[in-house]
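Our working data are protein records whose layout never changes between entries. Getting from the letters to the tokens is the skill we practise here. To make this concrete, we reproduce a full record directly below:
***
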Amino acid sequence: MNSIARLQEPIQGLALPTSRPELIRFLNSLCSRVRADYYLVAELHASRGDDEVRIVASNWMFDTIDQLGASTLLDLAAAPVTGFAGAAPRIWHPGSLEGLTDDQAGALDEAGHSEFASTRLRAGVRHYLLLLSAPALRLDAPRIPAAVMSLSYALSAMATEIAEELPDYPISERERECLGWVAEGKTTLDIAMILGVSSNTINSYLAHVIQKLAARNRAMAIAVAIRSGII
């Protein structure tokens, strides 16, 4: 099959997801089709005139996402290496991308993100950034446009679920708030002062979150929550 035909090759056999767990399985299947190891889907939107990013789904380690930062994701969305749905992708490497620091590029490479394909896509009125990554010389670039179009359909099918940010885990709004502050780097004492409760209460909330998310510690709970769209 020639490269032009492969660009138009549809992704067959993937049912559109209707829940976050199904979206994760859908993304894992897409990664398998294009030989990617990792995915990150971020919603790009404006609030009060300022650009913002919200992670919709990702199988990255939390520390790697944290080191890259939301501002870098915004820069990537506007970078020349990032194409649009339907176009042939440009494969790029962290060390050669202007705007990434040496520490960021090194952290990405150490975590197995040696080559990337980044694409902007639209689902209804929402705009997203998709990052597919893998160790060097792995990504099957000609298959990526079909995968991106399939993801666009999937995100459109899940527009309500994504917009409402309904978690698939039974944590309370206060527990989610506490975990969000931990993700922002706040200590237990900081959060207690912000919320006007005792440190013991904050520790109790966070202990419940860790248990409910089947995590081993706070860092793992944050990673699970980000991947599931809870925070």
About this structure: The first helix runs from residue 3 to 7. The beta strands are 38-47, 50-58, 83-84, 115-123, 126-134.
